[in-house]
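User: Hi! I have a protein structure encoded as tokens and I'd like to know what sequence might fold into it. I'm fairly new to this, so please keep things simple.
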């Protein structure tokens, strides 16, 4: 399949696509930034549950979901996108970011300290990683969308490409079955993978309340990363969710929600 056959149709330009849960309260709103190949929809259950106390705004990051598709995908870009959403909704929010979204949230706090009230970084550190995620782009491109009439058709093809069951379900949430296209800008994400795996050099720090929440079975945030985390986020606290890996919010949603709620209300 050529890349042009899987580029998404029907996205808009301008600000990030947002999904609002609940209405404003006396608590700061909560912004949720998803990880690579995800979307705001992935966070629907957790966002809805947390919206009983505060408004929750889940975004589609650029080059994902219904948000703008661009040629660039750096963390400075992603942080500016988030800052624009926050400015539009009152100017200051609590922020939860997972993986790629966690790196974007960290850069947001460092570059726009006034925009972030409390920060939760889910299973990622402000470091460069060596593993690539590009093989998943290859797998998604291998799906013959002309043979897809329901998500399960695409899941079967992803299984044949060696993608495990949980990720099959996750990836196909970004599939527009009706228009037979991925709501992911695979070309830009592939080209910008070095940026996605890295973390920018930023010579500042953010003194606010930060929780680095990891899956106990994940190897994304290691003991040797704590010094770097503390240098950028002196107020950082650390917590682990037992029995969870990198996809901690999907594997242990109730535990994730309870931990985030407790931290935001502390």
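Assistant: Happy to help. Inverse folding works backwards from shape to sequence: for each of the 266 positions I chose a residue that suits the local structure. Here it is:
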């Amino acid at each position: 399949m050529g890349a042009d056959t899987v580029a998404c149709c029907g996205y808009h330009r301008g600000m990030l696509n947002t999904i609002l849960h609940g209405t404003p309260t006396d608590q700061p709103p909560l912004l949720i930034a998803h990880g690579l190949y995800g979307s705001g929809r992935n966070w629907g259950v957790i966002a809805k549950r947390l919206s009983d106390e505060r408004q929750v705004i889940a975004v589609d990051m650029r080059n994902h979901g219904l948000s703008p598709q661009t040629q660039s995908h750096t963390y400075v870009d992603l942080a500016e996108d988030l800052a624009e959403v926050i400015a539009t909704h009152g100017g200051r929010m609590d922020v939860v970011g997972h993986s790629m979204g966690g790196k974007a949230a960290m850069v947001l706090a460092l570059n726009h300290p006034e925009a972030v009230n409390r920060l939760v970084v889910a299973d990622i550190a402000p470091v460069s990683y060596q593993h690539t995620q590009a093989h998943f782009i290859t797998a998604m491109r291998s799906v013959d969308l002309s043979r897809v009439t329901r998500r399960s058709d695409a899941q079967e093809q992803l299984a044949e490409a060696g993608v495990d069951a949980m990720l099959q379900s996750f990836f196909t949430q970004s599939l527009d079955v009706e228009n037979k296209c991925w709501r992911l800008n695979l070309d830009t994400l592939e080209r910008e993978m070095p940026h996605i795996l890295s973390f920018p050099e930023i010579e500042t720090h953010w003194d606010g309340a930060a929780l680095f929440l990891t899956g106990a079975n994940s190897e994304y945030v290691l003991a040797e990363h704590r010094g770097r985390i503390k240098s950028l986020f002196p107020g950082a606290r650390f917590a682990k969710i037992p029995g969870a890996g990198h996809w901690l919010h999907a594997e242990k949603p109730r535990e994730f929600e309870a931990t985030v709620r407790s931290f935001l209300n502390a």
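A useful reference point when you look it over: The chain has two domains: 8-129+189-264, 134-186. Feel free to ask if any position seems puzzling.
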